[in-house]
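fyi for ur records
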Amino acid sequence: MFKNASVTIVVDDLKKAEQFYVETLGFEVQFQVEGHLIQVEARGLSIGLVHPREGQNSFPGQSGSVHIGLEVQDLESAIELLQSRGVDFQAIMEEEATRIAYFSDPEGNPLYLIELK
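which gave:
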């Protein structure tokens, strides 16, 4: 039924969001609409970074509004790489089948790395 899926995140600073998702996290730009939208992609996930048009309501960075999970093979290596690029991690949780490291993008949107055991 579904061919692909994507997540849309409303942001206040499109350039800063692009820098974080492309330069820091390593996503690739698929396409963009100047000043309004940048579609970025990592294997298996597309994210639309949207700057609202004049008169549109937006609520970027509200906790709980969006959660993006990025599965990694080696959590420690991924944390070290992202820390070297300026990412601060809020918490690292370990459960029976997973290890999860929580962080945020520059707008405060929650993301996490997950390693399946």
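The helical segments are 14-24, 75-84. thats all i got for now
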